[in-house]
Cupin domain-containing protein (Ensifer adhaerens), 109 residues
Amino acid sequence: MSLPTFPTISTDTGVTRQVLSDSPELMVVSFRFENGAKGKLHRHPHVQSTYVARGKFRFFRNGQTYELKAGDSLVIPGNTEHGCECLEAGELIDCFTPRRDDFLSVSSA
């Protein structure tokens, strides 16, 4: 039995997203950022954890700023405004609960 393969999608200038695995209760997603790329401020009802697999990022969460490097992580409660700026090209591994159904559509950004 083979696992499903999800496409890599460009979500913004210098940012790509690929769903790695999912179930209705949880989703694991890779986001790859070029230096200087941004994850625009946004909010969603899902609880999100982000793990910096490589690179360096400045995160914004509810008006506070955090600098994270490889090996660091951050939890973002549901409905909390957040975003990031890539300071050194890298990859984030994000987990969402429940699953982000909007990420399962190839055309979603």
The chain has a mean pLDDT of 94. Residues 44 and 98 are 11 Å apart (CA to CA).
